[in-house]
Design goal:
Layout lengths: L11 E4 L2 H12 L2 E2 L8 E5 L5 E7 L12 E5 L2 H14 L15 E5 L5 E6 L8
Parallel strand pairs: 1-4, 5-7
Antiparallel strand pairs: 2-3, 3-4, 6-7
Pfam families: Glyoxalase_6
Protein name: VOC domain-containing protein
InterPro entries: Glyas_Bleomycin-R_OHBP_Dase (IPR029068), Glyoxalase_6 (IPR041581), VOC_core (IPR037523)
Length: 130
């Protein structure tokens, strides 16, 4: 069966500085950079069990201000969301100008050091009303 051959891989984020991005995302998500699956223009971040989790690809194009596809990082409570947002900001994330929040959002929009936006979603309040 052809359907059994095709599988979804893992997300890939385009970045201008691979080392900076690898440092940020590995710290943010408690991953490690894989020597086996990395190259001069690519870094693969793996989970503690060795599963390939996130790809970082050198890119010269600028990040989109409002990308159609982005990463959602999940937490279980509002307290966890507040703590993780603070931790990510300390690691180098920023708060981009974001005017598309619903009235009572369950998510906080941040940007990685390259400007790629992502969300920290509080699952206890999901989904956002809008």
């Amino acid at each position: 069966m052809l359907a059994d051959m095709l599988r979804l891989g893992f997300p890939v984020v385009g970045v201008t500085d691979l080392d900076r991005a690898a440092g940020f995302w590995s710290s943010a998500l408690h991953l490690r950079v894989s020597d086996e699956w990395s190259s001069p223009g690519w870094r693969t971040l793996t989970a503690p069990d060795g599963a390939r989790t996130l790809g970082l690809m050198r890119s010269a194009s600028p990040p989109q201000a409002k990308p159609r596809i982005h990463l959602d990082l999940l937490v279980d409570t509002t307290d966890e969301q507040v703590a993780e947002v603070a931790r990510l900001l300390e690691l180098g994330a920023t708060r981009p100008d974001w005017d598309d929040y619903p009235a009572d959002p369950d998510f906080v929009v941040l940007a990685d050091p390259d400007g790629n936006v992502f969300c920290v979603v509080d699952l206890s309040r999901a989904p956002s009303s809008g």
